[in-house]
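Lab meeting, item 3. Inverse folding demo.
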C-alpha cells in the first residue's frame, strides 16, 4: 500500500486494469480533433492534484478525453475545468483562475481535486466493473489526505463513489444511503459530504448550474472545513 501521495500517483499512472479504458484513452490521443492536432496527449491515468494538507476534497467522475487525458492534470484543458478552477479561485482555494496544462503555475491551498475513475470512459460512462477497479485508488488517496473534513461530490456518480470509498475507509455511512442533489449534505462519520451539479457544458450552458450556485457550494464547504464547525 502506498505510503505517500507521490507513490500512489506513480502507481495510478502505470495502471492498465481496464482494457476498454486503456484502448479508448490511447485511441483518442492518436485521433485528436482538428483543434488539438499536433499536441502530445498524456494518455495515461490521472492521479489527484492539490494540497496534501487539504481540508476540502473535490471528487469528479473521470478525466475528459480531450481535457485531462490531453493535458496530464485532472479537470484541466476543458470547459468543466475552467468552471471548477475559477470557482476555487473565487473561494480563495486556488492561486489563479485558469488551469490550462500541467506546469502552468496553478496551486491549490486547502483543496485537493480527484475523481472516482482515472481514465476517460467512452460517453463518460464507466461500467460498474471499471468503477470498482479504480475505487481502491480513491480509497487510498482519501486515506492519505489526513486533514480532510469535507468532500464535494460533482454529480451523482461522484457522490456514490465517495460514499463507497468512505465506507471502505471505515466511516459510518447513514442508512438509508443519502441521496444526491445539488446542495445536498450528509454527515459520513467524521466528514461532511456535499453534493454539487457537475460543471459539464450540459449543465452550465443550460443554466442548470450557475457560477452563483457553484460558489454557494464552496462557501458552504469552507464553512464546514473550519475547525469546530458543525453540519
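The presenter then showed the designed sequence:
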Amino acid at each position: 500500500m502506498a505510503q505517500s501521495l507521490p507513490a500512489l500517483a506513480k502507481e495510478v499512472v502505470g495502471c492498465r486494469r481496464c482494457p476498454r479504458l486503456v484502448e479508448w484513452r490511447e485511441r483518442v490521443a492518436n485521433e485528436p480533433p482538428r483543434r488539438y492536432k499536433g499536441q502530445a496527449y498524456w494518455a495515461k491515468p490521472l492521479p489527484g492534484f492539490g494540497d496534501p494538507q487539504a481540508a476540502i476534497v473535490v471528487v469528479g467522475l473521470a478525466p475528459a478525453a480531450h481535457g485531462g487525458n490531453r493535458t496530464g492534470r485532472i479537470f484541466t484543458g476543458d470547459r468543466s475545468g475552467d468552471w471548477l478552477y475559477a470557482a476555487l479561485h473565487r473561494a480563495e482555494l486556488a492561486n489563479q483562475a485558469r488551469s490550462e496544462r500541467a506546469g502552468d503555475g496553478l496551486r491549490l491551498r486547502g483543496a485537493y481535486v480527484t475523481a472516482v475513475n482515472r481514465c476517460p470512459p467512452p460517453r463518460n460512462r464507466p461500467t460498474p466493473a471499471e468503477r470498482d477497479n479504480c475505487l481502491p485508488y480513491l480509497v487510498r488517496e482519501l486515506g492519505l489526505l489526513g486533514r480532510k473534513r469535507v468532500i464535494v461530490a460533482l454529480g451523482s456518480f461522484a457522490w456514490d463513489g465517495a460514499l463507497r470509498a468512505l465506507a471502505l475507509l471505515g466511516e459510518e455511512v447513514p442508512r438509508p444511503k443519502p441521496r444526491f442533489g445539488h446542495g445536498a449534505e450528509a454527515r459520513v462519520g467524521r466528514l461532511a459530504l456535499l453534493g454539487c451539479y457537475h460543471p459539464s457544458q450540459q449543465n452550465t450552458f443550460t443554466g442548470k448550474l450557475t457560477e452563483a450556485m457553484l460558489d454557494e457550494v464552496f462557501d458552504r464547504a469552507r464553512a464546514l472545513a473550519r475547525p469546530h464547525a458543525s453540519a
